[in-house]
Design brief:
6 helices, mainly alpha, elongated
């Protein structure tokens, strides 16, 4: 019997959607963990969202850190970033691909997704 999971011809499975959503909510920790899971990192839907979530999480954390220092800790931007990541997680859980400006093009250009 084959060890490879059967591909769902109609789209991503519910497992794929869950892992994609978790990658955005707990970025960059969960995307790094998913990179070590052989059966998950090679699924196209998970890979596309996982790499985007990893890059977006790192970029937003750096930008948020710099802006926190500049604005002396005013945290409204942090809430906005968190809500944005939750929105992307929701869209991923709905089975949609997300186009994050600059990050999606960068990830696809590198061949990571």
């Amino acid at each position: 019997m084959s060890e490879e999971p059967l591909l769902n011809e109609t789209g991503p499975t519910s497992d794929d959607k869950l892992f994609a959503a978790l990658a955005y909510v707990f970025s960059p920790l969960v995307p790094i963990i998913i990179l070590f899971l052989e059966d998950k990192k090679n699924r196209p839907f998970i890979r596309a969202h996982n790499v985007q979530a990893l890059v977006a999480g790192i970029v937003l954390a750096v930008i948020l850190s710099i802006l926190t220092v500049i604005t002396c800790g005013v945290g409204l931007l942090g809430w906005f970033v968190w809500l944005l990541m939750l929105y992307w997680a929701y869209k991923a859980y709905q089975g949609e691909y997300i186009n994050i400006p600059l990050i999606t093009d960068f990830v696809k250009g590198q061949g990571w997704a």
